[in-house]
Amino acid sequence: MQRTLVIIKPDGVQRALVGKILARFEERGLKIVAMKLAQVDRDLAEKHYAVHQGKFFYEGLVNYISASPVVVMVLEGHEAIGVVRAMVGATRPWEAAAGTIRGDYALMGLRNLIHASDSPETAANEIALWFTTDQIHPYAREMDRWVNE
Ligand SMILES: Nc1ncnc2c1ncn2[C@@H]1O[C@H](COP(=O)(O)OP(=O)(O)O)[C@@H](O)[C@H]1O
Ligand SMILES: [Mg+2]
User: Fold this and answer.
1) CB 111 within 8 A of CB 124
2) Quick one: which H or E segment has residue 127?
3) How many domains does the chain have?
4) 8 A C-beta contact, residue 32 and residue 75
5) Rounded to 5 degrees, what are φ and ψ at 31?
6) Is residue 148 part of a domain?
7) Does any domain span residue 145?
8) What does the pLDDT look like over 59-94, one tens digit per residue?
């Protein structure tokens, strides 16, 4: 089982897409093991996007993620990191395939609704940045054996 960090960005929350996005992950069989609504401050935004520091869009990106509350979660499941990235779609919404979250709900600009970890190393770092260990709750679901066996 892998864990990955997902953020429904301010545009996703403002556009009232939280329920629809969550439903996709639940229906796929992924398990929510941590989740919260958070107003991101500059310090956290800078840490989360440290890899993009120095790029021309960095300042705009930090302002975007901290503009309004986000919903952040840890999802658990088989190959969760790659599976969730595939469900999220390409970075540029107009290039994102139909059937992906970005491809179904976003169109232009770089307001692309959602963030998801892109590798096991990134996932571990991002989960530790956003959640303490005691905020992550593993649990068994009756349906797990139907999803995973
Ligand atoms: N050229 C760009 N101009 C403006 N914003 C960008 C650009 N490239 C990326 N971004 C923003 O930075 C975020 C992080 O970029 P990146 O890690 O490359 O994409 P992804 O979110 O698909 O992993 C993107 O989701 C997008 O919001
Ligand atoms: Mg990225």
Assistant:
1) no
2) helix 120-130
3) 1
4) yes
5) -110, 130
6) no
7) no
8) 999 999 999 999 999 999 999 999 999 999 999 999
Q: How far apart are CA 33 and CA 49, in angstroms?
A: 23
Residues 6+ apart with CB under 8 A from 31: 75, 76, 77, 139, 141, 144
Q: Residue 114: which domain range?
A: 2-140
User: CB of 4 closer than 6 A to ligand 1?
Assistant: no
CATH number of the domain that 123 lies in? 3.30.70.141
Residue 143 DSSP label: T
Cβ of 115 below 6 Å from ligand 1: yes
Let me know if residue 27 belongs to a domain: yes
* Residue 147 domain flag: no
For a ligand 1 pocket test, name from 7, 110, 115 the mutation site with the most ligand atoms within 8 angstroms of its C-beta: 110
107: helix, coil or strand? coil
3-state secondary structure of 30: coil
For residue 100, give the DSSP letter.
B
Q: Catalytic residue numbers?
A: 115
Single pTM value for the model:
0.97
> Is any atom of ligand 1 closer than 6 Å to the C-beta of 91?
yes
pLDDT by residue (tens digit) across 94-112? 999 999 999 999 999 889 9
